[in-house]
Amino acid sequence: MVGLSVGEQHFVKGGIAQDLRTDGRKRLAYRPIYVETGVIPQANGSARVKIGGTDVIASVKAEIGRPSSLQPDKGKVAVFIDCSPTAEPTFGGRGGEELSSELALALQRCLLGGKSGAGAGINLSSLLIKEGKVCWDLYIDGLVISSDGNLLDALGAAIKAALTNTAIPKVNVSAEVADDEQPEIDISDEEYLQFDTSSVPVIVTLTKVGAHYIVDATAEEESQMSSAVSISVNRVGHICGLTKRGGSGLDPSVILDMISVAKHVTEALMSKLDSEISAAEACEDES
Amino acid sequence: MEVDREDGRTPNQLRPLACSRNILHRPHGSASWSQGDTKVLAAVYGPKAGTKKNENAEKACFEVIWKPKTGQIGKVEKEYEMILKRTIQSICVLTVNPNTTTSVIIQVVHDDGSLLPCAINAACAALVDAGIPMKHLAVAICCCLADNGYVVLDPNKLEEKKMTALAYLVFPNTTLSVLPEGSSVAEGEPVEHGIITSVTHGVMSVDDYFLCVENGRAATASLSAFFRKNFQQSQRDSSKAG
Amino acid sequence: MSTEVSTSPTSLIGQTVVPGDVVLDLSNMTNQTIKLGSGLRQDNDAISAMRAGKFRFSKPNKYWVESSHKRYIPRPEDTVLGIVVDSKSDNFWVDIKGPQLALLPVLAFEGGTRRNIPKFEVGTLLYVRVVKTNTGMNPEVSCTDASGKAAGFGPLKDGFMFETSTGLSRMLLSSPTCPVLEALGKKLSFETAFGLNGRVWVHAASPRVVIIVANALMNSETLSGTQQRIMVEKLLEKISE
Amino acid sequence: MAAKPGAATPTYSPKLVGRSRLPVFKDSDLDWSRPDGRGFHQCRPALLQTGAVSSASGSAYAEFGNTKVIVSVFGPRESKKAMTYSDVGRLNCNVSYTTFASPTLGQGTDHKEYSSMLHKALEGVIMMETFPKTTVDVFALVLESGGSDLSVVISCASLALADAGIMMYDLITAVSVSCIGKSLMIDPVIEEEGCEDGSFMMTCMPSRYEITQLTVTGEWTTPNINEAMQLCLDACSKLGEIMRDCLKQAASPSDE
Amino acid sequence: MGLPDSSQVLSTEMEVDAFRRIFPLRFFERHLSESLRPDARPLGKARDTIVNLGLVSTADGSALAKIGSTTMLAAIRMEVMTPSADSPDEGSIALEFHMPPICSPTVRPGRPADAAPVISKRLSDTILSSGMIDLKELCLVSGKAAWMGYLDIYCLDADGALFDAALLAAVAAFSNLQIPVVALNDNGRIVAITGGKDQDNASIIEKKAVNKEKRKLTLNNIPFSLTCILHKNYILADPTTEEETIMDTLVTVVLDSSDHMVSFYKSGGTVLASSSAIKSCVELARTRAKELKQILGEMDID
Fold first, then answer.
1. Shortest Cα–Cα distance, A23 to chain D (Å)
2. In chain A, which end has fewer C-beta atoms inside a 10 angstrom radius, N or C?
3. Which residues form the signal peptide (chain E) (predicted)?
4. Do C122 and C150 reside in the same domain of the chain?
């Protein structure tokens, strides 16, 4: 992590208290966001998101699979995150594993919704090809290339962009077969289906430093945090997921306050992301 | 004889024994031991410095690794490892080399019944070969109880399957002693008649168990003599020159 | 030699014993002081063997079990060949084939002071004397004799080292000179060092001689005196052809 | 000997697992009741007991309806050799399930996700600086899973820590709420969890009135969140009282 | 061991707890010479034993056995399998003994205890060879379907005599076992008949129920076990963990209800078992078996 001297620590904290952070931002201002889609041609969809010094790539790969016996009417989605040693030398070997699984878990919570499927960013039923027999398995891989704080928000945005970029081939299933046989499938290489990503939520992390909280914290600022709350909000303003990090406790009213601030921030962030993504998509189409 | 054995042995007759020591170059001690077609190789490394966690560092520790003829090790092998380890620990002098670990590796070459006793005998020979300080030797024998109540020693695999019950018994070897006869007696019987290890399979009456113990004990004399002869031979080989 | 197992022999001296055999009964020898060597342990009045080997007695009062092993258990005053495996500010760590590494204090050299600490690379072969073997501690070795003189101890340069059993090295060190050495010594000129831990070092002007000597020594373990002489003669004949 | 075919033979349970789900609750029928007959805002009766495992430094057993959990605390004891020096203590958590914990789950396994969540819930409340260089191990075994497993494990763990005499700022209590349709139900059972639209789990320090952990999944409106939080806070403080009583009871016989 | 004299001198002025830690063996031998153990038991007496049945609602049969502090939870789940060709009308039992990290300070997560697979093997050997269960009773449709009983035993608290407690829990779990009523459906699979709730199903299946009478297993020759410690000439029944670590010679005798020997297990240990010691152990086990039989009998009232 970032090693700061006592003087620097005071400077960071003091700046936040006065609503002027070290890089000149206000407490609730984001760093510039840069989105690029289609960065990995082999994947069904991919995107790269840079927020300041944080740089992540997300890719979506779709494979034909079998629905689980517990949920025969749904496809499956798995999220994996890899923290590359290029971001932080300590991520080498097994060092990044803990952070990776923590991020993957938080993203899974935000994207997949409740057990019944309510609030899911990805409609699992739309991944079904034939009940109990064939479905799409979606593998979402996130890669952290460079880390300067706020990884969860960046990954969330990258996955949203990658899903928008995703095209899944159309599949035709042969007619009825016996109960215990696998039907034949025919994957079309011309027709593609696009995902409806309007319901994919965006994630906002509010980091508490001193008595105030900030969005889009840099690594320096994160090192001074007492706790952080990540909230994912969808287009209609419903909360789809929430996780808290950091050991210290928070007063219930503070959390409620954070939630309402987060909702406010996401509105701006959502439209910003939307325009960035469509610009990136357009850019890719041209090239 | 009342019991007919497939290979024409009498009930108390063991299969031919064979043992050769110092057969492997790398280990500090090694031996191969066979009883009929059952054959086991044992290798000893150590003592090496240090003990594992959870082990008593004030004593010498042993670890046993069982390599089956084929396949992976399962629960049976784990149980054998534990029995061998505890048996070895009870016959070795643990206070001479404190805070050391000695590894015993058992490789099954062929299993035709009485595998565990065979492995214990092989391990014992290998430990002697490595010069590990021991209180005494251990001789192991398998006793089988046939349907008609007779006890059969050192069964092969076929006999093991047919038996109602069997007992693997380990005794101390018959030793030479300059002490006057009868001086090492505890509660009316010589100390060396005590059982080091006993593992049984199948249901039998308590009296039948004692019958097994008695028959098994009788066989230890010939096994002990075989051990002694084997050591004398190799001793002759190596120390003639001196 | 191949005495039948009888339950109560009168004396086992010179015989092969196996672990557990009771070799001495102290209750019969109350007014004697005896010294017990390796392979024996005391259990009240009974002295029993804990290794297999030949039970030996040497006048006036030493008893031990003679056996040959690949592993060495250090005993004070043994001379052994060690290999340096690490060097620290106060000690060298030396492998002497025992359960633990041995410590060689950097001052344990003739006239050793803080100013003239020798430098040994890892892998250096040393001829050393075992000083202390306390249980629970690493054994300590020294490059001086009891009076503090070098007396031939120290690093062995050049030459060839090979590992044998403790029995063979004891045989080679025995007096009168072992027949195989005698026979070789008549025809060839070479230098040797035997460690009781089963390591043997041979040095000669030409590698040829080193190889001949090393082979002859390794072959001699299981041979009688006469056999050894014949073996050496045959070997030398073959080489000179 | 009677050699068994072993576990290699494939087997199946005659009980139909997949289809025995609860009928989905409609918003319209308001008169349906919860599987165990509780009110929506009523917790299951909690049975708590300390000192369940004699060989541990501290332990506790918790039974909330069908959810049965044992937590053992070992230490503070020597850290693993590979660990470097640290002037604060370490906390090591592990949650595992028995093979028969739930009717659906095949085999008992370590639950990595719960292990790390238990760790996060506890680390803020333990005074780590009181046991430098050493580790406190908190191991939980879910004997039977009957819903709200993680919150029961967390509450039980804090009780076990108190039983072990590990210094803490406060007890930790954890409560979950499920959202099905428009209704919120506290302390859900496993059937309710299976068809919930959203889940909400909160751990808090009842005396300090602070939230240490909060996880929300599914879709929630702000008023729902407010309500759930209030429900949890109330339940937490009640649970805190029960835990306090349990500890007092355990301590009182020794005073006499 | 090596310092009997110093311990003697020190013991007069040392606190009992300190003496117990520093000279554990002396501490115990002092007790043994008075024929008493530190927990106030006579040498041959086992600790208080409690058995509770049917605690796990997700299992078909379960039991909790407690011997002193040693606690075992056993649960059986019944599943259906196709029997092997050489025994078409026999079911099967798969037994697993677990030592989760909660039970003892020596077990760490990720590294299973060495003792667990060994006890597991001994338990399944004992139960299968004792003939307590007739595997033929587990048959449903000859050659087609039979029960596979998954018996899992969890050690919740390890304080010595693990095998005894585990065996007791296993036996009690079998006595608690309620085999579900099942029927053969059209696809050749066995399905459970779930009470009266599913009305539409029940009427069809009523006539086809395969195992109406076979809801419980008949248990003959129930095995009971007692572990003893041999130390010098003393025999201590039902040892605690502390006693097991200080004195290392353990003997486990398993007798069945008709007084036959199912197992005599001793692996190593410094003390050799003489014939008289074996006889005493068997005698102690006999008394213990009667005690346990009574405890189990009280349970079986339902």
1. 30
2. C
3. none
4. yes
Count Cβ atoms within 10 A of the Cβ of residue B182 and give its class: 0-12 exposed, 13-18 middle, 19 or more buried: exposed
Residue from D20, D54, D59, D112 whose CB has the most chain E CBs within 10 Å, to mutate: D54
The residues facing B151 across adjacent strands are B145
CATH code of the domain containing C168:
3.30.1370.10
Number of independent structural domains in chain A: 1
Determine, yes or no, domain membership for B186: no
What is the ipTM metric for this complex? 0.85
The CATH 3.30.230.70 domain(s) of chain E lie at 49-176
Residue E220 forms contact with B (CB below 8 Å): no
D103 CB near a chain A CB, below 8 Å? no
Kindly write down the DSSP assignment for every residue of D157-184, as one continuous string: HHHHHHHHT--BSS--EEEEEEEETTEE
* A237 vs E146: CA distance, rounded Å: 55
Residue A1 resides in a domain: no
Kindly list the residues from chain C whose CB atom is less than 8 angstroms away from the CB atom of residue B62.
none
**Residue B167: domain span:** 17-175+193-233
Residues C90 and C135 in one domain: yes
Please give the domain boundaries of chain D with CATH numbers for all domains: 46-251 (3.30.230.70)
Among B82, B83, B194, the residue with its CB nearest the CB of E274 is B194
The whole-number average pLDDT for the span B55-83 is: 90
CATH (domain of C31): 2.40.50
Q: In which element (H, E) is residue E95 found?
A: strand E92-98
pLDDT band at E81 (very low <50, low <70, confident <90, very high): confident
Which CATH number is B62's domain given?
Answer: 3.30.230.70
With contacts defined as CB-CB under 8 Å, which chain C residues touch B221?
5
pLDDT of residue B2 exceeding 80, the answer is: no
CB atoms E268 and B213 under 8 Å: no
Taking CB atoms and an 8 Å cutoff, what residues of chain B touch E129? 201-203
Please give the tally of structural domains in chain B: 1
* Chain B residues inside the 8 Å CB shell of D1: 161, 201-202
Containing structural domain, residue C167: 160-240
Nearest CA in chain E to D140: E102
Q: Which two tokens stand for residue B123?
A: 């391990």
Q: What is the pLDDT of residues E39-65, one digit of tens each?
A: 889 999 999 999 999 888 888 899 999
pLDDT(A254) > 60: yes
- Using the predicted structure, report yes or no on whether residue E208 has a pLDDT greater than 70: no
Residue A40: domain span = 6-286
b or e along E70-94 (b: 16 or more beta carbons within 10 Å of the residue's beta carbon)?
bbbbbbbbbbbbbbeeebeebbbbb
Within a domain: residue B129? yes
In a domain, A184, yes or no: yes
**If pLDDT is split at 50, 70 and 90, which confidence band does B240 have?**
very low
Q: Is there a contact between C222 and B99 if contact means CB atoms under 8 Å apart?
A: no
Spatial separation of the C-alpha atoms in residues B31 and B226, rounded to whole Å: 14
What's residue D6's pLDDT?
Answer: 42
CATH of the domain at A55: 3.30.230.70
Render pLDDT for E232-242 as a digit per residue (tens, 0 to 9). 889 999 999 99
Length of chain D: 256
Tell me whether residue C9 is in a domain. no
D222/A263 Cβ within 8 A: yes
With cut-offs at 50, 70 and 90, classify the pLDDT of residue B236: low
Q: Is C52–B46 a contact, with Cβ atoms under 8 angstroms apart?
A: no
- Render pLDDT for B150-184 as a digit per residue (tens, 0 to 9): 889 999 998 888 888 999 999 998 888 887 766 66
Pairing of strands C46-49, C40-43: antiparallel
Q: Does domain E49-176 have CATH number 3.30.230.70?
A: yes
Length of chain E in terms of residues written: 302
Residue B238 maps to a domain? no
Q: Which chain B residue shows the shortest CA-CA distance from C74?
A: B97
Rounded to whole angstroms, the Cα distance separating C186 from C188 reads 6
Residues of B in contact with E255 (CB under 8 A): 206
